Amino acid sequence: MRPPSARSAKRKMMFITLAGILAIVGTLAGAYYFAMRPVTLRIAVGPANSDDIRVVQALSQAFAQKHGQIRLRPMPTEGAAASAQALADGKADLAVIRGDLAVPGNAQAVATLRKNVAVLWVPSTGKARGRKAGPKITKIPQLAGRRIGVVGRTQANVNLLKVILQQYGVDPAKVEIVQFPANEVAEAIRNQKADAYLAAGPVNSKITAEAIAASTRDGGAPTFLAIDSAEAIAQNHPNYEASDIPAGAFGGSPARPDDEVKTIGFTHHIVARKELADSTVAAFTRLLFAIRQSVMAEFPLAAKIETPDTDKDAAIPVHPGAAAFVDGEEKTFLDRYSDYIWWGLMALSAMGSAGAWFAGILKKDDRTSNNSLRDRLLDMLLAARRSDSTEELDRMQSEADNILRDTLHCFDHGIVEEAALTAFNIALDQFHNAVADRRALLVSPPQSLQRAGAQFRATGT
Known about the structure:
Blueprint: H1 4-36, E1 39-45, H2 51-66, E2 70-76, H3 80-88, E3 94-98, E4 107-122, E5 147-151, H4 155-167, E6 176-180, H5 185-190, E7 196-201, H6 206-214, E8 223-224, H7 230-236, E9 241-245, E10 261-273, H8 278-296, H9 320-326, H10 333-386, H11 390-412, H12 418-443, H13 447-460
Parallel strand pairs: 1-2, 1-3, 5-6, 5-7
Antiparallel strand pairs: 3-10, 4-7, 4-8, 4-10, 9-10
């Protein structure tokens, strides 16, 4: 009989080949799933109840409704500085930061959320309550020795005021700076808590417009202080840039301001950790600009979202993923994973070839084993012709039946070809004939005994 190890080896090889194919297919399917599954990005933004956090919350809802690859999870912070620190500490993937603050070393620009301007103004003159009004302020150098109110609790706005004062030779130490929360500034203006005010935000900021509206008393309009040295400040402080406040930007009649006012500005950025995958940032940037229009209806500030500066000398380097989107070089799924797919197919092909090679070796072994069985049948053919025992013939007949069964099994599995099977049948027929002849000879008496018996019976008669 053919040794059972050959069959076992063949089955093992088939299972190994099938397992390898399934492993490769599973790996490709798993890679596709992990590449296309939604990714949740943590975005640090603050302070609470600010326009920035409202816009980010609206964006996160729009991202979820889009059922795209990116999800946003807002992380409220105390302000832009705290958001930058969260990104630096790796607690956030994205952050909304101010361009005039220290930028984390691991931050790269993804989008410009909005551009801001510094608005410096003096409320309209009116009778002071309980104190004598000083000379009218029309220029920044006249702020020396005065009280200046800063809108908002962030230290960044105070630093901005100090930069402006120093440019005009005003010692910040000789100026009294008072900060007012956004919801208290209108009351502070009405109660004349300061001689001048500074607000920083987008040109269409509701907070700034309401503060300026409160600065109009007795029909008089507030006085806007122009920062004529904006270009010089921008040269000395690259995080700032020269800007303008358009006439009528804050409404009113007459228009406030009644003419264009020079000032300085800075930018709020959406930044990402530079370790974040390029494909993830590109997907976020693409989705951000795709849903911007839908968010604008509820939050007009979303209209100010712009693509980042991709120049090499930009204040904040652009993230490669965002740059790929801006430059139209974003990679598709096939672009990103074509090499892996190609290598997977190559591995699948190689495994198939290896399986075919092993199968050929196993078939060769099986053919060799079957040929040895055929040779054994021929040997039994000769042995049957010389056998002196019917028991031996019965044993060889049983072995021949097993050889026949194994040969037919090999034929069913393609190991034995039809021509070889025909030759085997011829040998098997010859064997059966030899066994039949020898069995007949062994069971019949010898002719000499037959003749002697015949003579004995005749004599006796």
